[in-house]
Amino acid sequence: MKYEPKMEKEMMCPVEYGLTIFGGKWKSRILCVLSSVSVMRYSQIRKELGNITDAVLAAMLKELMADELVSRRQYNEIPPKVEYALTEKGKSVLPILQSICHWSRLQTKDELDKKLPPCRTCTQLSL
Q: pTM of this prediction?
């Protein structure tokens, strides 16, 4: 069951809109994981993310598909085969995520590399 807020959220600026589309704990990570290869199966995505539950991953993929950032292709095979990939719109978000990653690394007072190694998307960027 999806959480539905009692009141519609009022958007005050375009940044808020963007953050609802690709922000949060999982959406940005899913986009980064999908950016590392052209297509991935559900089990590959789940393995890369580690501690995400099936319910959360399925919900996040549905939201990303509804916002046209991720595409889903189902093959008529047995066993069923489903692949996920970034759309062009999804790929357009990557520079934003890479910039956030770069900014975070510049602003940290701790040795962030020891805590959080750069994701594949960020390591592909040469700033």
A: 0.79
- DSSP 8-state code for residue 97: H
Calpha distance 78→76 (Å, rounded) = 7
Cα–Cα distance for residue pair 41/80, rounded to 1 Å: 11
Q: Within 13 Å, how many C-alpha atoms sit on residue 123's CB side?
A: 8
d(CA 120, CA 11): 32
Cis-peptide into 79, omega within 30 deg? yes
Q: Could you tell me if 34 and 90 are in contact, meaning their C-beta atoms sit under 8 angstroms apart?
A: yes
d(CA 49, CA 20): 20
Report CA-CA distances (Å) from 1 to 4, 14, 16. 9, 28, 24
C-alpha 70: how far from chain center: 9
- Give tens-digit pLDDT for 62-106: 999 999 999 999 998 888 899 999 999 999 999 998 888 888 777
